[in-house]
Amino acid sequence: MKFAELRKSGHAPSLVASFLYFDISFMIWVLLGALGVYITEDFGLSPSQKGMIVAIPILAGSFFRIVLGILTDRIGPRQTAIGGMILTMIPLLWGFLFGTNLTELYFIGILLGVAGASFSVALPMASRWYPPHLQGVAMGIAGAGNSGTVLATLFGPRLAEHIGWHGVMGVALIPLLMVFVVYLLIAKNPPSQPAPQPIINYFRVFKQKDTWYFCLLYGVTFGGFVGLTSFLSIFFVDQYGLSSVRAGDFLTLCVIAGSLFRPVGGMIADKIGGAKLLNFLFIAVAITMFGVSTLPSLAVVTILLFLCMMALGMGNGAVFQLVPQRFQKEIGMVTGVVGAAGGVGGFFVPNILGTLKQMTGTYASGFMVYAFIGIAALVILAIAQLSWRRVYLAKTESA
User: Which of 58, 105, 184, 300 has the most CB atoms around it within 10 Å of its CB?
Assistant: First the structure.
């Protein structure tokens, strides 16, 4: 049983610490999306502005993921995570005490990107503690920290009803401080931490084709997950007339699917291979997004979004079952780069939905575009697999 092996093969407290750090950071990263309805009411934003506000933390997270990825490889994941949590306290305090104009909100969103960069620290911590045959499940458990979105979407709107969105930013400091203390007590740097290299060496991963393949694939899976998470509450309110709290509940249901099934995706990928699993998942994404583009009844659209988020969550686990197989010494940097690509994808999703809604008057066009993106990902995966087969055959012949 792999969970029994996890206790024997690595360091379970560090795996738990990685999960908690990623979980609370992810909650904070998507907080503006969860509170989007309340923020847009305060500032009277257009559909495209709504998309931009919730997308800024995602894009900023892409930049910070590369920075924290390099730091993880140079100084270790434990020290990097501690610094990341301290920096994350700044935008929460800013939003709690100030945040009275749109410019401030943009800067708060940018700084919230540091929380999103936790991905580049939590996953390398988990990966380096465990052997290759446990990579899928270990990375899946750490990556399941994206379940922090559930905390944001379930409790954020409810709290905002009583204390306002500014108050929610302040309350978010409490669990962050609790995780910060726990992390200090139980997390340890893995023994396989590589020696620091000149910074220029870390950027050599960009010369590898596999880096770009993983970036494109993760841009679809994680980008879709986090992008939809940031925007769906606005979609439910605008399209189906739900209250802010009810919209948060429906979003939470969809988010749970993506979060809980990420480790499942990693475990299945360990058995059948991440690439094989991704073929099925991208087909599922394309079909469900096409269904959503018809704007069916609330019950049907919820089922379709649930299934889509489940496929995207499993896809996240499948991609990161593959990454450590190809990159181990550079796992911090590669995780940062691939994670950044996921963040870029997440930036475009709400912007596509918001902008096309403003241009066409319907959300159907935006979801249709994402259905075609799922098909494009399937084609990219096929091209990547051909490349991997050629490399494998070349190695076999040389042996």
Answer: 58
